[in-house]
Amino acid sequence: MTLTSTDFHFPHQDAPVYHGKVRDVYSIEGNILVMVATDRISAFDVVLPEGIPYKGQVLNQIANYFLDATCEKVPNWKLAEVDPMVTAGIRCEGFRVEMIIRGYLAGSAWREYASGVREICGVKLPEGLRENERLPEPIITPTTKADAGHDENISREEIIAQGLVSAEDYAVMERYTRDLFEIGTRMAADKGLILVDTKYEFGKHEGKVLLIDEVHTPDSSRYFYADTYAELFAAGKPQRQLSKEFVRQWLMENGFMGRPGEKVPEMTPAVCKAISDRYIELYEHVTGRKFVPATEADAGKRIETGVLDFLDSLKH
Hints:
By secondary structure, this protein is an alpha+beta fold. It is built from 8 helices and 16 strands. Strand 4 and strand 5 (46-47) form a beta hairpin.
């Protein structure tokens, strides 16, 4: 069973549910957000037609693991994990920019570089780099955050010039991005992994910039296995990775990159289970914890009970 959509009606809910690509977001009294990580999966900015078992739980629990591990260095929105698939936190005014930071040349950045591009988001890249090569230093390559369709690359200068983020707030976001990546890199190394690239989202609450949404999950990050990195890189072979890139690769091999007219290949139960297994593997490898599936058959009922209990606790 997968949970691919929700439509709860909680006490003091002040807006209809917002369905993101993966998360369903509920606003309570204008100051609390209840964020449900569904089992939806997206790639190339397209929500795929089938849900992935336990994916929502994996994403939510990895995000909470890292929110808790980084909160002393970077303040975040989280108040409580109210269900294995749900986090409640402070409602922030989100910035319309995603902060992507890359320690290695991989994924979409490599695809651009291979096509001849030598400047991404205002950051110049040297000649002669190879796929999956470690960059001289991590680079920040922001994108605009689109409600629908594709996010677009944008430079720091354009973000400030367009008034998307003030220069002061952007400086804070940039510092927090580097701090988070440094912590994430260290935590990954402790587990025999390389944090290749990742994205962060920020918002503002009462004049303060806070980290919001997911952190270092397979939907937002790419990991390589450290023990085989050097050998595979020297041989020019693909890296063993823990990320959503394997889903993108499968889609590309079957003729889908989210372009007009392309059809998503059939997602059989075997394909969905294989994706689920990879997500669980990443959870266990990244956190060092055994994955314990939520057992209740009716995830919707379980979530509703957990959220109601949390909201009730706020009254006391």
